[in-house]
Amino acid sequence: MKATIDHIGIAVADLGDALAFYRDALGLEVEAPEEVASQRVRAHFLRAGDSAIELLEATAEDSPIAKFMAKRGAGMHHVALRVADIVAALAELKTRGVRLIDGTPRPGAHGSLVAFVHPSSAHGVLIELVERREK
Ligand code: ZN
After folding, report:
1. How far is the CA of 122 from the centre of ligand 1 (A)?
2. Residue 19: which H helix or E strand, with range?
3. Would the pTM count as exceeding 0.85?
4. Ligand 1 center to 50 CA (angstroms)
């Protein structure tokens, strides 16, 4: 499977505080925030060349980001790999016995399709697969 790093997801307690570092101190270019209702998160993407940093703030206590923060605190949450065909990628991983969180893709930010691979199959890292539908 051919993949490039689409973005790195970082869990933060407060988007405003996080932007003070990532946008203001580092000087990364920020995109409009987006609520991903299905995940109960507010996301902010900051461009870094062909990749991006995704800042994730929970919008509800039962959000996966809130649970992650409660257990591990703020920090790196996932690595997202961009693939051309997410359905084909998931099928390929299934045949290789990889443990998936999402057997079928679901809607992600910016009209993309996403699916997560379980960290137990990825040596402790939550991997997100992304298929971009635009650009
Ligand atoms: Zn992501």
Report:
1. 16
2. helix 15-19
3. yes
4. 15
